[in-house]
Specification:
single chain, alpha/beta, FAD/NAD(P)-binding domain, D-Amino Acid Oxidase, Chain A, domain 2, 2 domains, eight-stranded mixed β-sheet, 26% strand, globular
């Protein structure tokens, strides 16, 4: 390597800032990576844990999501039951619900502005589509009761959101939160436990054996060694492990200028959850619609799809903010991760190498649960 393209760690950096005797290295400082570090440190308080993150923030979706604390809309869960079978679909719903409970326990609901009263609400355009699912909620509630401990997870409720049928399906196990505060709280909690977070570094490859794992980072001259490695890169995993059965998808999100949001008290889902919107104070956030833009599937690069953004803006004009003037003041994309199966991947994939990924666009809900499963798998112990 030439001196201009390589980076050689100083004694101080290797011994004190990164660490020379790492017990657990985690790749990816998103929700799963941070929570894995937190749970591992709670099991092993004296362990040396270091998180390596390529981006300035845990960018994939962890700091770029819409702040929906959701387990799935009626149509989404019923669709999953139809495709994957009742047992698998409900198992994933349970992971989401348990993940939300773990997340709230970790950071405290008030610290992330968790709004439980801002339930999930699935909306429909006509009576026929509403009745198709409302007739099935009693049976679905019976299935979900052992998970949510609610006699009626879903209920019919009148809504006054313009452009939709006057009744929707409320999910009382869901809420809304502040994504920025959530990320900050998890990061502070990890650092407070002694976890080190190294940003701006990209893992090129690794080599593992029965006693350790060697990590080779872009531009770093010498490898870093760790006893265990956890890969928590979700949608970006194929950059490192091309054989993993994951499918990244780019999701567009926009936020409006200041508008009247008094008619938007919930977190709304439409079209099996592919489109979602909520109020953020005096603004409206809307995201999704990638099923109308199949070129977004397989996309791992951030960027804007102007046609998708225009679709979301028109959706707001036609159905949510009818009669109001507004501009789009914020727009961004997040990269989520799915696959042919709904269930996440939490596995050992080699000597001392573990993965926790494929969160199915539900990282806020399921992330802490996947992290708990991953940390206990690595430790061989539970909390």
């Amino acid at each position: 390597m030439s001196g201009t393209s390589s980076y050689r760690l100083s004694y101080w950096e290797r011994e004190h800032l990164v660490g020379s005797d790492i017990d657990l290295a985690i790749i990816g400082a998103g929700i799963v990576g941070l929570c894995t570090a937190i749970y591992y440190k709670r099991i092993h308080p004296t362990a040396k844990v270091v998180i390596f993150e390529k981006m300035p923030l845990g960018a994939g979706a962890s700091s770029r999501n819409a702040g929906f604390a959701c387990i799935g809309s009626t149509s989404e869960i019923l669709s999953d039951i139809n495709i994957y079978g009742e047992a698998k679909a409900l198992s994933v719903v349970k992971q989401r619900y348990d993940g939300l409970e773990r997340l709230k326990s970790l950071v405290g609901p008030s610290n992330i502005y968790y709004q439980h009263s801002a339930h999930g609400c699935e909306v429909f355009t006509d009576a026929e589509s509403f009745e198709k699912y409302s007739e099935l909620i009693d049976g679905l509630n019976d299935m979900l009761c052992p998970i949510t401990k609610l006699r009626k997870t879903f209920e019919v409720e009148s809504i006054n959101t313009l452009g939709f049928y006057h009744q929707g399906l409320i999910n009382r196990a869901e809420g809304l939160l502040n994504t920025g505060l959530l990320y900050s709280q998890l990061e502070s909690l990890a650092v407070g436990l002694g976890v080190k977070i190294i940003r701006g570094v990209s893992l090129r490859h690794f080599e593992s054996n029965a006693t350790s794992v060697s990590l080779y980072f872009e531009k770093w001259v010498r490898p870093i060694h760790t006893r265990n490695l956890a890969i928590c890169t979700n949608a970006f995993t194929q950059n490192l492990l091309p054989e993993m059965a994951v499918t990244p998808s780019r999701n567009q999100v926009v936020v409006t200028s200041i508008v009247d949001t008094t008619h938007i008290p919930y977190g709304y889902h439409f079209d099996k959850g592919y489109i979602y919107f909520r109020a953020i104070g005096d603004r409206v956030l809307i995201g999704g619609a990638r099923h109308h833009f199949p070129q977004e599937d397989g996309q791992r690069k951030f960027g804007s799809n102007e046609a998708n953004i225009e679709f979301l803006k028109q959706f707001l004009q036609d159905k949510v903010l009818t009669g109001q003037s507004f501009n789009i003041e914020y727009s961004w994309s997040g990269i989520l991760c799915g696959g042919e199966n709904r269930d996440p991947i939490v596995n050992a994939i080699g000597d001392r190498v573990f993965v926790g990924l494929r969160l199915g666009g539900m990282g806020v809900a399921i992330g802490a649960q996947i992290a708990y499963e991953l940390a206990t798998m690595i430790s061989g112990r539970s909390l």
